[in-house]
């Protein structure tokens, strides 16, 4: 083979080798493309998107349960065996913590402590341990514990799902027990309702439909018991008995049962019941929101069941 033929042969062989190498290189790049493709998105983990309905909060009472926006949660000692008994006007003052199907608890809380109970209207209320949970309408900002000890039946709930019954020493309510709107006091008629200063409260039989009718000269002698904010009741009283109604002369007037409440200008201080039986239409009121019609001399506390 002459030199020219040998040169052509070598050139052709080199070209074949180059083509083979190029093909191999292209194959490698194709395989690389397959292995480096992005993985498909993963599905959401179980429980993601659930609504956090209860969290751990800090207060002067210690670590407590708080709900949305950090508002304090309470338990009601009359809710025996985890069944909610606060409804109607009670639920207006103490709104239940209602939850949907997809709820969860915040960090630091044991989810096993929490459950739900069905209310009479079919809604589901959150329960911590054996206590259905509520807000208090008198709490206006996160950290408030103004409902603590109300009526000696409402208490904040610890992170261990137990009621905390000690008194507040500071924080949300300034370290003071919220001023009481109404409380119980002893009298010649038995235990009766008095205002925060201890002055006797009365009901007016002409207010039988629950609407105040005492105005003008009547209101001068019988001033309406007006309340700012939500009523705070004293020991031994059921908060569900008490509501507010528009006063005949403005403001929000306290009601016990169906009776708007009044003071009497003729009572000079705590313990006086000088208005009892006045005109046959004014009577002191018992803890159950019923008028007590016995005269003071009777030394009795029997409530008139007709009222």
What does this structure look like?
The chain is 14% helix and 24% strand. The protein is α+β, with helices and mostly antiparallel strands and 307 residues long. Strands 4, 6, 7 and 8 form a four-stranded antiparallel β-sheet that branches. It has a three-stranded mixed β-sheet with strand order 2-1-5, with no helix packed on it.
Shape: elongated
Q: Topology as H/E string?
A: HEEEHEEEEEEEEEEHEEEEE
Describe the main β-sheet briefly: 4 strands, antiparallel
Content-based structural category: alpha+beta
Q: How many DSSP helices? A: 3
What proportion of the residues is helical, as a percent range? 10-25%
Q: How many individual β-strands?
A: 18
Total domain modules: 2
Radius of gyration: 36 Å
- Detail the poorly predicted runs: 3-48, 170-177, 296-307
Proportion of β residues?
15-25%
Average pLDDT: 79
Terminal CA distance: 134 Å
Task: List strands and helices in order, with pairings.
Blueprint (H helix, E strand, L loop, with lengths): L2 H33 L15 E9 L2 E5 L7 E3 L12 H5 L4 E2 L3 E3 L8 E5 L5 E5 L2 E2 L21 E4 L5 E2 L17 E6 L2 E6 L6 E3 L12 H5 L20 E5 L5 E5 L2 E2 L21 E4 L5 E2 L15
Parallel strand pairs: 1-5
Antiparallel strand pairs: 1-2, 3-9, 4-7, 6-7, 7-8, 9-10, 11-12, 13-17, 14-15, 15-16, 17-18
Brief rundown of the structure:
The chain has 307 residues and is of the alpha+beta class. The chain has helices at residues 3-35, 89-93, 217-221, and strands at 51-59, 62-66, 74-76, 98-99, 103-105, 114-118, 124-128, 131-132, 154-157, 163-164, 182-187, 190-195, 202-204, 242-246, 252-256, 259-260, 282-285, 291-292.
């Amino acid at each position: 083979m002459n030199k020219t033929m040998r040169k052509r042969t070598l050139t052709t062989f080199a070209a074949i080798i180059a083509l083979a190498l190029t093909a191999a290189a292209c194959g490698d790049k194709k395989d690389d493309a397959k292995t480096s493709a992005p993985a498909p998105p993963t599905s959401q983990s179980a429980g993601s998107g659930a609504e956090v309905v209860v969290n751990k909060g800090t207060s002067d009472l210690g670590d407590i349960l708080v709900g949305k926006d950090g508002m304090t949660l309470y338990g009601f000692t009359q809710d025996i065996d985890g069944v909610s008994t606060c409804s109607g006007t009670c639920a207006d003052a103490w709104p239940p913590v209602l939850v949907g199907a997809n709820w969860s608890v915040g960090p630091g809380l044991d989810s096993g402590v929490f459950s739900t109970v069905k209310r009479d209207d079919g809604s589901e209320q959150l329960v911590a341990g054996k206590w259905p949970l509520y807000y208090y309408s008198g709490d206006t900002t996160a950290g408030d514990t103004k409902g603590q000890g109300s009526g000696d039946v409402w208490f904040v709930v610890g992170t261990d799902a137990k009621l905390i019954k000690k008194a507040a020493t500071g924080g949300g309510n300034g370290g003071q027990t919220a001023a009481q709107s109404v409380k119980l006091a002893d009298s010649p008629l038995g235990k009766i309702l008095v205002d925060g200063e201890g002055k006797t409260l009365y009901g007016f039989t002409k207010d039988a439909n629950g609407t105040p009718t005492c105005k003008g000269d009547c209101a001068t002698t019988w001033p309406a018991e007006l309340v700012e904010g939500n009523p705070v009741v004293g020991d031994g009283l059921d908060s569900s008995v008490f509501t507010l109604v528009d006063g005949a002369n403005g403001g929000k007037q306290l009601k016990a049962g169906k009776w708007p409440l009044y003071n009497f200008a003729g009572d000079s201080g705590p313990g006086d019941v000088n208005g009892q039986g006045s005109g046959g239409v004014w009577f002191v009121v018992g803890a159950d929101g019923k008028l007590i019609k016995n005269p003071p001399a009777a030394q009795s506390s029997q409530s008139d069941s007709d009222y």
